[in-house]
């Protein structure tokens, strides 16, 4: 297991639809949805993200890709600030050829600090992915970086299961108060 690491890098800018803009906002961890930002919103607290099966900067094990059948990998996080009302997880690739969201889980109880293999925490809700599927959509692009980002939110997302990706990402972005990320560099 690698050392927990929180990235403060900003992703490459995306162009295109409103969905791409919402993805950039959420994936960057900034939690801003247009307009001017207050200084305190720009200084988001870090969350440490780790996994017993993934290492930051290493390959994504093929079991967690479309080549395998393990479902989502396990994740652990710490450093969720006081006042957090819910947690969300977004798995994406932020590719130069077009970002892809492989999983969105939200309204996770803020006392939860880990996620087991192929599971969703009790009471959490899964939104739609780029493919329109609800649930974990295993990554398939071998040479892409895959980002597992955990967001602390100041409120519930409060959308139904299978909610549109655009609505879900915008809601997560508008409520983000802290975030952390583990990034894999390609699929083994």
Automatic annotation (TrEMBL):
The UniProt entry's sequence similarity note says: Belongs to the UPF0098 family.
Q: Which Gene3D superfamilies match?
A: PEBP-like
Which domain of life does the protein's organism represent? Bacteria
Q: Which InterPro entries match?
A: PEBP, PEBP-like_sf, YbhB_YbcL/LppC-like
Q: Give the species.
A: Streptosporangium saharense
| Annotated signal peptide | none
Q: Which Pfam families match?
A: PBP
This chain belongs to which protein, by name?
A: YbhB/YbcL family Raf kinase inhibitor-like protein
Q: Which CDD domains match?
A: PEBP_bact_arch
């Amino acid at each position: 297991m690698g050392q927990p690491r929180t990235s403060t890098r900003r992703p490459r800018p995306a162009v295109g639809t409103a969905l791409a803009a919402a993805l950039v906002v959420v994936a960057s961890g900034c939690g801003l949805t247009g307009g001017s930002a207050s200084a305190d919103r720009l200084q988001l607290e870090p969350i440490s993200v780790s996994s017993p099966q993934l290492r930051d900067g290493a390959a994504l094990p093929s079991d967690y890709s479309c080549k395998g059948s393990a479902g989502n990998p396990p994740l652990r996080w710490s450093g969720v600030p006081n006042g957090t009302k819910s947690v969300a997880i977004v798995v994406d690739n932020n590719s130069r050829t077009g970002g892809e969201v492989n999983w969105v889980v939200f309204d996770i109880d803020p006392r939860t600090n880990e996620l087991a293999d192929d599971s969703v925490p009790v009471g959490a809700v899964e939104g739609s992915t780029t493919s329109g599927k609800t649930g974990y959509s295993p990554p398939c692009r071998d040479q892409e970086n895959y980002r597992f980002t955990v967001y602390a939110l100041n409120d519930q997302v409060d959308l139904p299961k299978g909610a549109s990706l655009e609505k879900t990402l915008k809601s997560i972005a508008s409520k983000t108060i802290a975030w952390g990320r583990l990034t894999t560099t390609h699929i083994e």
